[in-house]
Amino acid sequence: MRQSPEASPLIPSPAATALPPPPALPANAALFLDVDGCLLPFAPRPDAVDVPPALVARLTALQRALGGALALVSGRNLATLDALFAPGAFTAAGLHGVERRRAGDTGGTGVVPAALPKVRDAGLALIATHPGALLEDKGAAIALHWRMTPEPHKDATAAALRAFAEHALTQLPGYQLQPGDHVIELRPHHADKGSAILAFLEEPPFAGRVPVFAGDDLTDEPGFSAVNAHGGISVLVGDRAGSAARHRLPDTAAVHRWLGVPERTPETPA
Ligand SMILES: [Mg+2]
């Protein structure tokens, strides 16, 4: 077993090379894939990566075979992912989970949960019954204010708005309550790849499937933890020590073989 040079003998840190390879992709997988360093080898410049057409074709076939439950989970933004993987069209989370577009969406950055417009409308209906209350629409966030509410009604209004927000939170995966001075806000959690994967897993076609996530970098660690917590398959690409991943593939070529991407040959130039 190879020890990474920085591993301390006092703090056992499992050598990545000791991790077993992943099993074959389950038929009921929800497949999450990091891009750079996982699906694509690193290029000297990020805009110089080469996306083999055979990879796009295989991902498209997998997407279909998995009932749409395949998503790219990358540090790149969604627009760049779309350009790189064209003509493929994939569900994706960009910017390490800050941007998230769910299955079937064609727009750029469908970050907000499906229930958010309904919550906003219900909030508007509620404040209409509470003189002085205000709903501030911040796009991905909603703030409910009661500073202007006349004094005799302030406590009751505050209680009603807080109760509304607490209930709304149950419909907004990945959101949290942010209380303030005469205000309570519904806003997205600080996002990472783990929160993006967990949000996908709450929605069709990902919900109820076995989550599988492959990635190479430190920013993939929250994704590994999320997948492990759901009894899924976490796959480190490379030999970084101390990962939460439970499986390992040595490089992008091995990822391609695992996913069934046909190898490039001189007869089939990409
Ligand atoms: Mg990566």
TrEMBL record:
PANTHER family: TREHALOSE 6-PHOSPHATE PHOSPHATASE. It catalyses: alpha,alpha-trehalose 6-phosphate + H2O = alpha,alpha-trehalose + phosphate. It comes from the Bacteria. Gene3D superfamilies: HAD superfamily/HAD-like, Trehalose-6-phosphate phosphatase related protein, domain 2. The keyword Metal-binding applies. This is Trehalose 6-phosphate phosphatase. The keyword Hydrolase applies. It is an enzyme of class 3 (hydrolase). Its EC number is 3.1.3.12. Pfam families: Trehalose_PPase. One of its GO terms (molecular function) is magnesium ion binding. Pathway: Glycan biosynthesis; trehalose biosynthesis. Its cofactor is Mg(2+). Keywords: Hydrolase, Magnesium, Metal-binding. It comes from Luteimonas terrae. Belongs to the trehalose phosphatase family. Removes the phosphate from trehalose 6-phosphate to produce free trehalose.
